[in-house]
């Protein structure tokens, strides 16, 4: 699933001797989580995934802010909290356990303290839409990454994946298509503009 040239880059990160953080950026539905899992499978016990999606604002807060209809946009995350966690992970002390949040699609909510990050794990993979964005708090993320990959895939396939995902988690087909066009694809256009900040592009074929 992962070509040798990418595995070689990953091996270098894992074998470096100190904590390394790899960022996987890309549009919704590009396959970031799939790639992160493939890396975990390739380096069992030597990597952990800390998803940006764990920093989604809770639905009740999105309602208060009037942003519920734009969930997934750059201002619907606790970007400052995400940066603070990455900073802690970079400076993690021997024997320390750092807990990261995750996001559960079945309830559409973040869950705190769900992912233990052990100090002796050499590679931390963080994946999300806005890792390379150059505005607001997001602008600080790139400097916390040792390497950044932009994950890409055929647009038509990506949109099909998104529609199927939304339907799987409760929307009917019309609602899923509307959400993809009015929300996901608006975000995708912004994310696409950040790809030049990546070290390499990983494209699913």
TrEMBL record:
Give the molecular function GO annotations: ATP binding; uridine kinase activity
Establish whether keyword Aminoacyl-tRNA synthetase is in the entry.
Answer: no
Q: What class of enzyme is it?
A: transferase
Say which domain of life the source belongs to: Bacteria
Keywords from the UniProt entry: Kinase, Transferase
Instruction: Give a yes or no for keyword Kinase in this entry.
Output: yes
Limits of the Phosphoribulokinase/uridine kinase domain: 21-202
The EC number(s) attached to this protein equal 2.7.1.48
Q: Kindly provide the name given to this protein in its UniProt entry.
A: Uridine kinase
Tell me what organism the protein belongs to: Caballeronia sordidicola
